[in-house]
Amino acid sequence: MKPAVFFFCCFVASFGALGASAPVQPEATPEVAVAAPAEVHVDFDVAVATRAYLDRLTPEERERSDSYFEGGYWLQIWGLLYTLGFSWLLLGTGLSAHMRDLAHRLGRWRPLQTVLYVLQYLVVATILYFPLTWYQGFHREHQYGLATQSFGAWFSEQLLGLLVSAVMLSLLLVPLYAVFRRAPRTWWAWGALIGVGFMISAILIAPVYIDPIFNTYVTLEDPEVKDPILSLARASGIDADRVYQFDASRQTNRISANVSGFAGTMAIRLNDNLLERCTLPEIQAVMAHEIGHYALNHIYESIIFLGLVLVLGLLFVRWGFERAIARWGARWRVDGIGDLAGLPLLSALFAIYFFLGTPFLNSYIRVNEAEADMFALHASRQPEGFAEVALKLGEYRKLDPGPLEEWIFFDHPSGRARIEMAMRWRAEHLNE
């Protein structure tokens, strides 16, 4: 859990029907056509088919997947504790106040002071967070066989990420702190508008300016792969003439794809692991899922939803900030919400808010993902390909959690739920 103001984007339902009519007999009075009775398949059992997929993983593979995913539960807790400890250190030792004073000495222009404080804050955070970042992002990924990068390559990307974070966080906090200072009573409402505007801007610029910093994107030329994806996109109302592939295998062996951006920056993209590790039906199922997010307007819905989440979060922050400053503000040398030295407290309160809201945020995203899954099955008509991909994702996602566990920790449907959905769809379309 990084020490910064959080922003999010999430993503995805369609249906079809088919009928047949009886032929009209020659030289007879025409009659209303009657649908032929469907052939009953009593030998296909959804539960049995689902279990057959799940049983293809060995006990060792299941144990490894469960261990990796369940370890993430503890990392969420440790991430929160790390953020609280980091924030308390900066505030309790007066380091945050010293950083603010240095920023004021080096620049008289308020926006420049904000940028100078942000740079100091990110440098200190990067150093103090490095053990957790290294364990979670490098060591643990290699331990479970999910990463492909050397330490040098990984560390270089961390430095690039630091530069991107410095720019993005400055662009967010300069107007945010201007509002904090000028609207001491209604800053939370104006702050929410700034946050939503920043989120929209990030979605717009990420495919064009940010993603290419970390990976190389080229046009996918193979017509056997490209043409069905573009056909599906056009049939779903997306005006697209190309598909991009990117070299994620430099960092990981996970399969992934996305339809990102909107307006003029929308792009259909899949990584090289998906191309190398998956069959054509599997690729079509994955891309239908991603296209479903876009076609079902999940980006726009999520902006509205997360705007409401941000409003509630800022109200929570106002409540907590005022009480914390009343009790410890003099000791920390923090005057109020407009004081840059209070950023660690802002970060800690947001961390608490989003940690407590994890089940609800996950549930919202999981519902959208389930809608995209159903869209993918109807659009691609590849239930076996869909189930095979769910198994591959089971390399690092627990396949068969309990109901409470899935509600709290899963931001996607579990592998079992996805395979069962695919098998139920298959059962209803056996005669087509």
Given helix and strand content, the structural type is: mainly alpha
Q: Sketch the major β-sheet.
A: 4 strands, mixed
Strand arrangement within the widest β-sheet reads 1-2-4-3
DSSP strand count: 4
First-last Cα distance: 48 Å
Low-pLDDT parts are: 1-40
Task: Provide an overview of this structure.
By secondary structure, the protein is mainly α. The protein has a domain at 46-217 and 295-330 and 339-428. It is built from 15 helices and 4 strands. The chain has helices at 46-54, 59-92, 95-106, 110-143, 151-182, 187-214, 223-235, 272-277, 280-295, 298-332, 343-356, 358-380, 383-393, 403-409, 415-428, and strands at residues 217-219, 244-246, 257-260, 267-271. Residues 1-40 have low confidence and may be disordered.
Features:
single chain; 432 residues; 15 helices; 4 strands; disordered N terminus
